[in-house]
Each structure stands twice: as C-alpha cells, then as structure tokens.
Amino acid sequence: MAKRTSLSVVALAAAMILSSCSSGSTTTEAQTTDDNSNYPLTITNCGQDVVVDAPPQRAVSLNQSSTEILLSLGLADRMVGTATWTDPVRDNLASDNAKVPRLADNKPALEVVLDAEPDFVSASFGGTLGPGGVADRSQFEQLGVPNYLSPTDCNGKTDESVNSDGARTDPLEIATVYQEIRDLAAIFDVRERGERFIGELQDRFDAASGAVTASGTSLVYWFADTATPYMAGCCGSSGIITNSVGAQNIYSDTTDEWPQVSWESVADRNPTAFVLADLSRRTLAGDALDSKIEFLESDPVTQRLQAVVDKRYIVVNGADLNPSIRTVDGVEKVAAALQGWGLAN
C-alpha cells in the first residue's frame, strides 16, 4: 500500500473532539446491509456504530487480549501493529505474533499508531481506547479509522467504570467474550473461522467446568501489590472462573472488579486456596509469582493461613484474569488444581 502523506499531530489534535465510549446496555450485534459478505458493515459496539467499508487490511490492536483474538482468527497478515502486553503471547500464537510489529510493550503514543497507517483499531479496555488512553474513539473516527472496543469492558458497566477497574452492574458472562470474537470475525469477513474458534473455546470451557463441582471451596484471586493487594471482586473474569467450578470467591460481596483490600481482611475470610497471577511486568511489588509466594510465607498475617501452610497456590497468567479468550485458560487451570487436591467432586 502506498504510503499516505503524514498529517500533523498538532493539527489533528486541534480538530479532534474528545468523547467517551457509552457503556449503556446495548447488546453488541452485527448488522449487514445485505448478505453476510457485503459491505459497508455496521456493528453496534459499546453504544456506538462502527462502520467498516471493507475488510481491514492494516489493523492495529492496542491490547494483548484483542491481539490474541485476531491472531486466533488467522489475521496476522492483516495486522500492522500490536501494543500493551502483560504476558507472553499464547504458545500456539507465537509464530504468527512474531510476524506482526510490536509498536510498544505498554501503551503507545498516538503518533506511533498513526505511523503504522491503520485502517482499523481494536482494544480491550477503555483505558487504552478512550479518555486518557492512546486516543479517544472520536479521534480515530476523525481520521476515518473505524475502531472497536471489547464489549467485556462496557457491557454491564456504568459510564464511570468503563475507563477503570470499577464496579460492574451485571456479572460478566463468557458469552460476551464469544460476542467479541463474532464481531471481529464479521468485521474481517472471516465468520466461519470465528464460529469454529468459538466452538473450540466452548468445548474447552464445558469440559473443564463440567468435570468440577467445588462446593465448600473458597478462592481469592491476587493480581498484584503486597501493601494493599488487588484482589478480584465478584463479577469480572474471575467470577466466570469461580462460578464455572462451583466455588466461592471470598470477595463475592463486592462488585468492584479489582478492589484493594487489607491482609487482615483476607485472613478473616480464610480462603481455601490462592489464585496467584504471575505477571511478566515488574511495576508493583508482588507482580512476579516468586515475590507473591515469598510474601505469603513470611508475612505474620498470612503465613499461618491454612492455604499458605498447605501451599495451595493456583498459578495463572495475568492475562487469564482479564476478560478474554484466556479466561478459558483460567478455568482449566483452576479446575485442574482443585481436582488434583481432591477439593472437587
């Protein structure tokens, strides 16, 4: 594709109007003008209409979760950039991922994204594609670049919660992850691939969850931070995992996605097992698995917990606790650990 003349970022910024993604209760759905392969295609996404005139050929994905969906759909040859990584890519996607330029390990500058000349931008979080992120959705629209935000970050959330780890008004469902796959498959005109991939995920999810009923087992999901740790609330990706195995989350009484709590609170609720996120980043104390375990086994509040004495640690990737195809990985890992300990029927 011939290189288009670069636009001045300063001039663009003056012309761009900031607006946030409306979270609403609108169900994300694909609507075509005629049959399944005709364009333009309009998809209602997070309260906005995304209009795609043709299947994208130069896509940029701004979050790992979205990237792994596109790679799973066999779209590496139509991607010109990825960004904002929390973990290594899934092993089965590593070869294709190596073909796609990484624009940044973390959140890229808008100029870097524009230099890739995208004809489509996708993201998993409003914190990346929204106010305070790489750019607001309206900024890309001003440039004629269609953009898509994962419905996992707006369905069942208030406007204030879309751009943060705030409360969910409705629990996240695995069906919303499938809807994201279905939407992106429609946008890229690979619907059959999308349905096959959804079927594979459903089979894995059903096999893992159907083999386990861990009633009477309580879990706590520790993402990061040793001082005031981020523990999962009731209703995000961890909620899907917990419910799938029939267990209880000790913080099921909070709708905040990642509340910060005290260790005394954890001790009072006395979980059967810890689900520990092994993060590849090194931003906060307790990001790495080893540092989490070292803390649990040395802190005077936690070291006497039976889960710590028995070393009941379920290790997951950080990405497994984000709403994504990795949620199914999380279900499999938690189910396998509970079975191995004899804590599930």
**CATH level-four homologous superfamily name of the largest domain:** Nitrogenase molybdenum iron protein domain
Q: What's the total number of strands?
A: 13
Provide the spatial order of strands within the biggest beta sheet: 6-5-4-7-8
Silhouette = globular
Number of structurally distinct domains: 2
Work out the helicity level.
25-40%
Strand portion = 15-25%
> Average pLDDT value?
88
Structural class: alpha/beta
SSE sequence, one letter per element? HEEEEHEHEHEHEHHHEEHEHEHHEH
Brief overview:
Helix content is 33%, strand content 16%. It has 13 helices and 13 strands. A five-stranded parallel β-sheet has the order 6-5-4-7-8. Strands 9, 10, 11, 12 and 13 form a five-stranded mixed β-sheet that branches.
Walk me through the structure:
The chain has 345 residues and is an alpha/beta fold. The protein has two domains: 22-204, Rossmann fold (3-Layer(aba) Sandwich), CATH 3.40.50; 213-340, Rossmann fold (3-Layer(aba) Sandwich), CATH 3.40.50. Helices cover 33% and strands 16% of the residues. The protein contains 13 helices and 13 strands. It has helices at residues 9-15, 64-72, 94-97, 110-115, 137-142, 159-162, 174-187, 191-210, 237-244, 263-269, 289-298, 306-309, 326-340, and strands spanning 29-32, 41-45, 48-52, 59-61, 79-83, 102-104, 120-123, 147-149, 218-224, 230-231, 248-249, 273-278, 313-317. It has a five-stranded parallel β-sheet. The longest helix has 20 residues, at 191-210. The radius of gyration is 21 Å and the shape is globular. Mean pLDDT is 88; it is low at 1-35.
